[in-house]
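Structure tokens please, single chain.
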Amino acid sequence: MFAAFPAEAQTGAIQRISNFETGTAGWRSIRIDKKVPATTFRIRQIEGVTSVEARARNSMALFTRRVMVDLNRTPILCWRWRVSDVVRTADISKKSGDDQAARIYIGLDLPNSSISLGTRAKLAIARARGGNDIPDGAINYVWDNRYPVGTARNNVYTRQAKIIVAQSGSSQAQQWITERHDLASDIRKQFRTRKAKVTSVAISSDTDNSGETVRAAFADIHAVSASAPCRF
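Here you go.
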């Protein structure tokens, strides 16, 4: 179980989610499958940016924290990330290729009206096996190797995890890329509800299916109002 760890206090139109300059208090690494080696995470300065770098070598884990985001006040999610390369042999349309060089994972609490009885039963079984860290649903913004930016699809393992391709290909590898996404709108489109609540944020680099080795760094995760700029 996570210890309760509220998000950074909101100041004006910004809510800081990560502040890696001061460390990683409240964050923890979670292994989804105990049989799979864990991706490692560490604080690193890369080109003057204080970040958490994920190093994946035939591995998978989430580096995550509890967080509450007011989607009415700050619906826009911002961050910057940097990858060493894409996962060359990945294919998110297949279980055998479900790997990403980098991923921002948003865990959600969904209203019962948007979850079928069958899905609720499956979630209960999954939580009995893997713990209560498993959310009702999730939005995954990924750096993919083949699908175009803007592609949105279900995860191959569960319809409760939605994948949105935020970056694709290796042309911008080895450099910091800034992102701005309307998280509230993406949740409404993917789960058809305006009553979802953000419960967690995680970062990850995933290569357990491909067996490849990649590194990804993440920094400055925050939420802003619709009219406010991201702040890097």
